[in-house]
Design a protein that fits this description.
heterodimer, A: 128 residues, alpha/beta, Rossmann fold, 5-stranded parallel β-sheet, globular, B: 729 residues, alpha+beta, Rhopdopsin 7-helix transmembrane proteins, Beta-Lactamase, 4 domains, 6-stranded antiparallel β-sheet, 5-stranded mixed β-sheet, 22 helices, 15 strands
């Protein structure tokens, strides 16, 4: 069965492109345009991987991930690996991401090959 | 008619005619002299015409008196005297217009008055309505006027009123005391001159008032001549003394002797011895006159014209009130030409920037050079010796042994005959070059004394003025630099804003770039496999993303652009500025969970301003508002609402942020004052904002309450203010 990936970004140009790319690679890609939407989606569906933007209005990427982890934990579900993508290297955000244990942190604009490689690696980890 | 006039049997000796002839003989050369001094100056020409009229009138009137029958007297009067009398009217009017500077304005009236004069004269000759007979009085024949002469009289009075009006106008307009005095003299002269017409008036009703008109006319001419001379800086000594007074006083002696000899003592001619005795006596009287009376008159007039000490002290007084080298130099030139009648006055002032002496003021340009080198050996010598140099003395005085040739070269170059250095502590500030005198006399010892006083006063005054102008120039320079620095500061502050916003901009631009890169690589990976729908979608995404990048870059460039020097302040809609800033900051604020709410009516808020600078002010306040909100909460709103009155346009920016306590508010506009942490801002923002707004004649005010928020109000003058008073276009 195709792996399911949740893409969280307030920028539709990004979500559309990434969704198209991942679909082409044979993944099942779902888009959330805000942290709140992502949380709702997590509650109703299962995902194998989360790709999230950092800087977003309302709640940002890091807060969204924290919230998702909390929900997962409360409902006794396992951890979903996260990849953060950001347009701007904000030192504070980067540090808190490391602290949170986010596996990968990519800077926009990234190479599709690199992106797919990171996706693949993270999904492989889940399988093991 | 000519035969009758030339027939000597029609005349007899009449002593009453003598004063008339005398005055007439004096007036004419005065007018001629004034005319010769400046042949192209209308005032001088008009004066000459006026003198000619008066002279002609009096001279021919003399022959009316000499006539021994009414027919001859009438011929003289009708053809000649009346011509002189009525020609006074246009000539006097021309003179008043010319000396009041109203000639161009009154050209029509002047021409009109000449036409009128011509009509009167023709009518007098061709009809009997003006003068028809002559009556004998005890002083001689005098014409009887017909009623039509009233019209002439009426125009005479009107002419007089117009002349006084002109002079009154000139008197009120004139600010320079000497010239006011001149106008006043002319006005008084005309009033005195007008009394001469009383004898004319009296004869309309045949009342036998003695025709004393010659006397006021004489005073009138002298006053006018004095006034014209004073203004034109002719030597009063030369004009009044050397010509008029000489002729006058000499004729007082000569003419009586002549008439005495011709008609007085007929028995004289019968005895040779008596004749010799008579002439010897006359000669003695003449010698006595030349020896005693003439020098006394000389002395009297000299004293009046040459109270040099008084002029020098008045000059000193005037200097106190003069600002600026130009006015000073003008005053020096006026004083010298008015007092000493130098033909040429050239004043050179040292020009620091060009390192040479430049001609600042010149009375007569002929022969003057425009500038002098600061290395001129004679000028260097003058700076050392600080001495008035008279050309005549160069050859004889041993003082000039070392510099003789150079000094001669200098005077040859400048065509001057005297050089007056203005030296202050061995520095030559300037030189006054004088040419010869109009009256061809030499400069006297007392004049040297006068020039020395003038030189010292002028030196100090010019030195002060140069210092003053120098300081003024420095202030101008500094102000210019400050304005430039402020402009740079605004730009620096703006670039700093761009820097702080760089994160936001990077984020904003990296999103579309991600879309572009992803889609381009997908297209490349497709390896030529044609999948129309998918490829098309990728291309569309790329297009949209590229456009987005373009608009972001454009926005950034508009914001960070250098202000155009020429477009300092233009009419603009303040709301446009606000909207531009909002569109620039929009993304960043959105990312920071700040919403901007603008409540603007569909109205225009026109102010005069510099777009770039006003943008900076609004940016600063909005970013401050954002920081104030972020310090107490994660999200918030900034409300921006404009308001306007007839006088003012206001932009209010309200936030629900941290606010400020009362003790901080007065300090927020101080330079380098900041409540932000180190590294977040240097604290120049609001002080620059205030400087910008004050430059726009507006103000920034703030209301604030701790933990509730602040309202910043930027107020600028309404550029479309409707004036209460309607102004004419």
């Amino acid at each position: 069965m195709a792996k399911s990936i949740l893409i969280i970004d307030d920028e539709q140009l990004v979500t559309k492109s990434l969704q198209k790319l991942l679909k082409k690679e044979g993944y099942n890609a779902v888009v959330a345009t805000s942290g709140h939407e992502a949380i709702e989606k997590i509650k109703s569906s299962e995902f194998d991987l989360i790709v999230s933007d950092v800087r977003m209005p309302s709640i940002n990427g890091i807060e969204t991930i924290e919230k998702i982890r909390q929900i997962r934990q409360e409902s006794g579900k396992g951890h979903i690996p996260e990849i953060l993508i950001t347009g701007y290297a904000d030192e504070d955000k980067y540090k808190s991401a490391i602290k949170l244990g986010v596996r990968d942190y990519l800077f926009k604009p990234f190479d599709t090959n690199k992106f797919l490689e990171v996706i693949k690696r993270n999904l492989d980890v889940t399988e093991k | 008619m000519l035969e009758q006039l030339l027939d000597f049997s029609n005349y007899h000796y009449n002593p009453h005619a003598i004063p008339l002839i005398l005055v007439s003989v004096i007036i004419f050369p005065i007018g001629l002299f004034i005319f010769l001094q400046a042949k192209k100056v209308v005032k001088n020409v008009a004066f000459f015409l006026l003198c000619s009229s008066l002279s002609f009138w009096l001279f021919t009137m003399g022959f009316v008196y000499f006539s021994n029958n009414s027919h001859t007297a009438l011929l003289w009067y009708k053809y000649f005297t009346f011509f002189g009398v009525i020609s006074i009217m246009p000539n006097a009017y021309l003179f008043s217009a010319a000396s009041s500077g109203l000639l161009t304005k009154q050209r029509k009236y002047v021409i009109g008055s000449y036409i009128l004069f011509y009509i009167f004269y023709i009518l007098t000759l061709t009809t009997d309505k003006f003068i028809n007979s002559a009556t004998r009085y005890f002083w001689g024949y005098y014409p009887s006027y017909e009623p039509m002469t009233y019209i002439v009289l009426l125009f005479y009075v009107m002419d007089f009123i117009a002349i006084q009006g002109n002079l009154w106008f000139a008197y009120r307009k004139e600010k320079i005391p000497i010239k006011r005095a001149q106008v006043l003299t002319i006005a008084i002269g005309f009033i005195i001159g007008f009394t001469a017409s009383v004898d004319f008036v009296a004869k309309i009703w045949p009342i036998s008032i003695y025709p004393f008109g010659f006397f006021p006319i004489f005073i009138f001419t002298c006053l006018l001549a004095y006034s014209v001379i004073r203004h034109k800086a002719f030597d009063i000594e030369t004009v009044v003394h050397k010509t008029a007074l000489w002729i006058l006083s000499f004729s007082f002696v000569i003419i009586p002797i002549f008439f005495l000899y011709r008609w007085g003592f007929s028995y004289l001619r019968e005895s040779t011895a008596l004749q010799i005795g008579f002439w010897l006596m006359s000669f003695l009287i003449l010698a006595l006159y030349l020896r005693v009376i003439q020098p006394k008159i000389d002395h009297f007039f000299q004293r009046r014209a040459y109270n040099l000490d008084e002029i020098a002290s008045r000059f000193t007084e005037e200097l106190v009130h003069l600002r600026g080298v130009d006015k000073l130099v003008q005053r020096i030139e006026d004083t010298i030409s008015d007092t000493l009648y130098s033909r040429q006055v050239g004043i050179f002032i040292y020009n620091q920037a060009e390192e040479r002496y430049k001609l600042a003021k010149v009375k007569d340009k002929s022969g003057e050079v425009a500038e002098l080198s600061e290395k001129n050996p004679f000028l260097l010598w003058l700076a050392q010796n600080d001495k008035i140099v008279y050309r005549e003395f160069i050859d004889i005085d041993p003082v000039y042994d070392t510099i003789r040739e150079e000094a001669k070269n200098y005077f040859d170059l400048t065509k001057a005959i005297m050089a007056i250095p203005l030296v202050l502590s061995e520095r030559l500030l300037g030189i006054i070059n004088l040419g010869g005198k109009v009256n061809l006399r030499r400069y006297s010892a007392s004049e040297f004394h006068f020039l020395t006083a003038l030189k010292n006063q002028s030196t100090i005054a010019i030195s002060n003025s140069l210092l003053y102008e120098n300081i003024e120039e420095q202030v101008r320079q500094r102000t210019k630099e400050l304005v430039e620095v402020q402009k740079q500061l605004v730009q620096v502050e703006k670039m700093a804003t761009v820097g702080t916003l760089a994160g936001g901009v990077a984020h904003e631009i990296n999103n579309p770039l991600t879309a572009i890169l992803t889609n381009v690589q997908m297209l490349l990976d497709s390896n030529g496999k044609v999948n129309d729908e998918s490829n098309m979608e990728s291309l569309e995404l790329i297009e949209e993303a590229t456009k987005r990048c373009r608009s972001i870059v454009k926005k950034l460039m508009t914001y960070a652009r250098r202000p155009l020097e020429s477009a300092e302040a233009t009419k603009l809609n303040f709301l446009d500025v606000v909207n531009k800033v909002i569109s620039f900051l929009g993304y960043q604020l959105e990312q920071d969970n700040i919403t901007i709410i603008t409540e603007a009516k569909d109205d225009e808020y026109i102010v005069m301003g510099n777009h770039n600078e006003l943008e900076q002010v609004i940016t600063n306040i909005i970013l401050n508002a954002k920081d104030a909100i972020k310090r107490i909460k994660k999200a918030g709103s900034i409300y921006i609402y404009p308001s306007k009155s007839n006088d003012w346009i206001k932009i209010n920016i309200k936030d629900g942020g941290i606010g400020m306590s009362k003790d901080i508010i007065p300090r927020i506009f101080d330079p380098f004052f900041t409540t932000k942490e180190v590294g977040k801002g240097v604290g120049l923002g609001l002080s620059i904002c205030q400087a910008i707004i004050e430059k726009h004649n507006g103000s920034i005010t703030v209301q604030s309450e701790p933990n509730k928020g602040s309202i910043f109000t930027v107020q600028l003058p309404n550029a479309e203010k409707k004036s209460v008073v309607k102004t004419e276009v």
